[in-house]
Design a protein that fits this description.
Layout lengths: L50 E2 L2 E2 L3 E4 L4 E4 L4 E3 L2 E3 L2 H6 L4 E9 L6 E2 L7 E3 L5 E12 L8 E4 L3 E6 L7 E6 L3 E3 L7 E9 L6 E6 L5 E3 L5 E4 L6 E10 L5 E11 L5 E4 L5 E3 L10 E7 L5 E5 L7 E3 L5 H4 L3 E10 L2 E6 L3 E6 L6 E9 L11 E5 L4 E10 L8 E9 L3 E7 L2 E2 L3 E5 L6 E10 L5 E9 L7 E4 L1 E6 L5 E5 L5 E5 L4 E5 L14 E3 L9 E5 L7 E7 L4 E2 L2 E2 L2 E6 L6 E2 L5 E5 L16 E6 L13 E7 L3
Parallel strand pairs: 4-12, 14-20, 21-28, 30-41
Antiparallel strand pairs: 1-2, 3-6, 5-9, 7-8, 7-10, 10-11, 10-12, 13-15, 15-18, 16-19, 17-18, 19-20, 22-25, 23-24, 23-26, 26-27, 26-28, 29-31, 31-37, 32-36, 32-39, 33-34, 33-37, 35-36, 38-41, 39-40, 42-44, 43-51, 45-50, 45-52, 46-47, 48-49, 48-51
Organism: Companilactobacillus paralimentarius DSM 13238 = JCM 10415
Protein name: Cell surface SD repeat-containing protein
């Protein structure tokens, strides 16, 4: 534990531990007292090496000595591992590593130790903290000639008077992906952090599958296989406590050749990504494709360092079973090394999902009144000849759809004259009452064979009977089946068809309006109408044969309130600015010619009926009158 002292001023006259009334009732002595101070290493530690996969670009330590906690007479081992860059290794081919350890009891003053081993075993005999640093020097027969020297980071070993047990262990790996297809085995280290972090136990390591990778039980060095066997290996660390208990943790490491196999649906793109740890990107990456005939083609070679390749939209016939691999070039100084990944397989799932498109239109060959999309026909009358045209297409050549049924709802009074499919008479159909709508029948065209063709043009000719309804939605649906007669799905068109029946009626709906309030002495004033949201006269013209019409507006009674008559007149203003006074004979509002629909009336502010207030005194009241609309059909 760390003991922190705070300076305090005590009044000895108020506190004296020797007096009876100030008896000490509790005393706590720390297990160990330490004070942290800045540590000055024996030598500035070498920067962490830059390693591209397993190619060393710079020299340094890939396993630093770890801080350790122990207790008196319990040995601890500091493990290290270091390596040289490609260039340093080439310059000193015959050099071998030599190890020197330095220690310090205060973190400032250092002495060279007698041990020259890579690993340092310490068995402390007293409580306290000692610091250690290692130097690794590669030299051959003549030291000092082209030597490579690296220094580790400083690690300490803190010794307690008694053990501290671990309650948990967290494990991580320096690299979670190792290659299995290179001449040199790929390696990484796993480390464990206990809870509490000053636990004094020792960690041992094991793997669950030695055919994928092995692990040094002491150092945590994981070495992948070089037999191209791929999978995920689990590395488990176990810290054993002095009382016989233990805690464990694990980390999973993927073993592979750099690329994973990919499976995509036809028409989708596949992406391959080079895996592994990269302290720096390769200087060049070249991607290759091997087609199903074994032809190897470079698919990208633009001196790039892109570690990901995405294919074009896949096609089952040409892409299923192709392979992809990447060649990575690593340049360090004058040295160039290449790394080739495994050949990853591309599997393309054949797309058998039906790609159904449906288009339907409707025509009335007896009377032409339809919208521009030919999905609505208006003014349909008894004995009209109605034609439904439906196209159904399956755009997926590999579709599992082999048979289809087409259902269309028709007015129950309609009589089927004939059905044609691809310009040929078609008789395999039935017509039944619609259980959900007593005004409808369901016509079903059966056994349309999608094996021999993928595109059907259907024409249904019918004669409309007398209908009491005003509108009918003629919905279409397609049920698709596979070779086992299993339902694949029901497919609907984007639009429905609508028949609007004619009843040769014209309906008028007059809306009220009002004028603003006037006072008793308002004279010689022309009042505008208050605005209304809807039309003044709403017209629903459903006549099939539209004769010419004239529309009149008349006022048979003046404005009255409880028998009192308002001294006024209603003036009707057409668009030209003139006016005439409304009376019982009627004023022309609008007129149509033969074949023209009568529209609703919605006057602008400058036109229509306005109220003129004449001279005189007006008695207070709520004055109303009733106007009358008259519609006259011309007789020719």
């Amino acid at each position: 534990m760390m003991l922190i002292f705070t300076a305090m001023s005590l009044d000895q006259s108020n506190f004296d531990k020797s007096t009876p009334e100030n008896e000490i009732i509790s005393k706590v002595i720390p297990t160990v007292t330490t004070a942290k101070a800045a540590v000055t290493p024996y030598h500035e530690p070498t920067s962490d090496p830059i390693i591209l996969l397993f190619i060393w670009l710079t020299s340094g330590y890939n396993l630093q000595p770890e801080n350790q906690y122990t207790y008196v007479n319990n040995p601890k081992t500091l493990y290290t591992d270091s390596g040289r860059s490609v260039v340093d290794a080439l310059l000193g081919l015959l050099a071998s590593p030599h190890y020197t350890w330095y220690q310090s009891t205060d973190g400032q003053n250092w002495t060279q130790m007698s041990q020259t081993t890579k690993e340092l075993i310490i068995t402390p005999t007293k409580v306290g903290t000692v610091y250690y640093q290692q130097m690794t020097r590669w030299y051959g027969l003549i030291p000092g000639l082209l030597d490579t020297i690296v220094y580790s980071k400083v690690a300490f070993i803190t010794t307690f008077p008694s053990p501290i047990n671990a309650t948990a262990l967290s494990v991580k790996a320096n690299d979670n992906y190792l290659y299995n297809n290179q001449s040199s085995a790929a390696t990484t280290y796993v480390t464990g952090t206990p809870t509490p972090n000053n636990a004094t136990g020792n960690i041992t390591w094991k793997v669950n599958d030695t055919s994928l990778a092995t692990v040094d039980s002491r150092t945590g060095l994981v070495t992948a296989n070089t037999n191209s066997k791929s999978g995920t290996v689990r590395v488990t660390g176990t810290m054993s406590n002095s009382d016989g208990t233990s805690v464990s943790g694990y980390v999973d490491i993927k073993i592979g050749g750099g690329l994973d196999d990919q499976t995509v649906d036809e028409g989708k793109k596949a992406t391959f990504t080079v895996q592994g740890k990269f302290d720096e990107k390769p200087t060049n990456v070249v991607w290759h494709k091997v087609d199903i005939a074994g032809k190897d083609t470079v698919v990208t070679n633009n001196n790039s360092d892109v570690l990901t390749y995405t294919t074009a939209n896949t096609v089952y016939a040409t892409d299923n079973g192709t392979k992809y691999y990447a060649v990575l070039t690593v340049t360090s100084g004058d040295s160039t090394t290449t790394v080739t990944t495994n050949k990853a397989n591309l599997s393309v799932r054949k797309n058998v999902v039906p790609d159904i498109s449906i288009n339907n239109t409707i025509f009335n060959s007896s009377y032409e009144d339809h919208n521009s999309e030919n999905t609505i026909i208006n003014n349909v009358a008894e004995n009209d000849k109605v034609i439904h045209r439906i196209t159904v297409k399956d755009s997926n050549l590999n579709s599992a759809l082999t048979r289809a049924e087409i259902q269309i709802k028709l007015p129950k009074t309609s009589v089927i004259d004939n059905v044609k499919v691809n310009n040929q008479d078609f008789t395999d159909y039935i017509s039944v009452s619609d259980p959900d709508n007593n005004q409808s029948t369901i016509l079903t065209l059966r056994n349309l064979n999608f094996v021999t063709t993928k595109d059907f043009a259907i024409e249904i000719n019918s004669t409309v009977g007398k209908n009491e309804i005003l509108s009918f939605n003629s919905n279409v649906s397609v049920n698709g089946y596979d070779t086992g007669d299993n339902l694949l799905g029901q497919y609907l068109p984007a639009q429905s068809l609508q028949l609007n029946f004619a009843d040769n009626s014209i309906n008028l709906q007059a809306n009220d309006w009002s004028y603003k309030t006037i006072n008793s002495y308002t004279t010689d004033t022309l009042l505008d109408r208050d605005k209304i949201e809807s039309s003044h006269l709403e017209v629903d013209d459903k006549r099939r044969n539209k004769q010419a019409l004239t529309l009149y507006l008349s006022q048979k009674n003046p404005f009255k309130s409880d028998g009192k008559v308002l001294n006024s007149e209603m003036r009707y203003y057409p668009q030209d600015g003139s006016y005439e006074v409304l009376n019982e004979n009627g004023t022309l509002v609008s007129e149509t010619v033969n074949g023209q629909r009568l529209d609703s009336v919605a006057w602008q502010e400058h036109e229509g009926p306005k109220l003129y207030i004449s001279d005189g005194v007006h008695e207070a009241g709520n004055y109303t009158t009733q106007l009358e609309w008259s519609l006259v059909e011309s007789i020719s």
